[in-house]
């Protein structure tokens, strides 16, 4: 089942004027168990490429087919900027949306589009692409909260002028991001406050209890940057709702890859540049669909991020993790 962002929405009550009851039922526990940890794929071409490269086995995959609800991104000529909020009715007769029934939201082309941060690291479990702690907000290591320092590039005596300039530019960008961190956090939180206030207040409460408040009064969330990232369905041990932002997605990336999905509701949303989405990573199994880059080159993320940045999707994720919240409380 496919829905476009230009489809009419239902005005359910004043706070949320774009609530869509797209998911009439949660999937059964038996079906959900079969989906956990599975690589999400949207085309047979990606499946074939991944098997051929050894990125995954056929038994590792789950195909997004017609039994799924798919939210298609706007066409190039579309002027739609309407946000969507997803909720799950209790049954077929339930026409009363409530905050407790909301499980996520999506907004296209409308949020932060100024800073791209590109980094590399492999995250645990079956995942492909890269995710790394970036320079915005607090995170924790071994139970201690800290901010990620921007690395100081090193140049040899024989470094070429082009290399020296690249190091200088990279450091300049990272310093700028670090200094702008509280403002970026405030913008992200303000967007959520006007869009899904119950999630925003929940995040703010956790931040206040943990002492994770920046100088502008916004949650001092940890930020993770990704490149070419995809992962099987999983849940995360986080203390708050999670916000995602597509900071870069070139036209080389097709609509059937690098999209976000909720397993509990068999819902997939197509992402595009500057898309912004929200989900409860603690409560619902979620993941990002496999992309062609990682299916074909599963072990070459750093090389491709450096030499072919437009071949992978760039995203940023903001959240207060459980470990960071506990470390912040213990460090008071």
User: Helix fraction?
Assistant: 25-40%
Count of alpha/pi helices: 7
- Write down how many β-strands occur, each being a DSSP E stretch of 2 or more residues: 17
Q: Per DSSP, what share of the residues sits in E-state strands of 2 or more residues? A: 15-25%
Descriptive report:
With 332 residues, the protein is of the alpha+beta class. It has one domain. Helix content is 26%, strand content 24%. The chain has helices at residues 29-35, 44-53, 161-195, 197-210, 292-296, 301-307, 322-330; strands at residues 2-4, 19-20, 39-41, 61-63, 69-72, 84-87, 102-107, 127-133, 138-141, 144-147, 222-234, 242-248, 260-262, 267-269, 276-279, 286-288, 314-319. Strands 1, 2, 5, 6, 7, 8, 11, 12, 13, 14, 15, 16 and 17 form a 13-stranded mixed sheet that branches. A hairpin with a 2-residue loop joins β9 (138-141) and β10 (144-147). α3 (161-195) packs across α4 and α4 (197-210) packs parallel to α7.
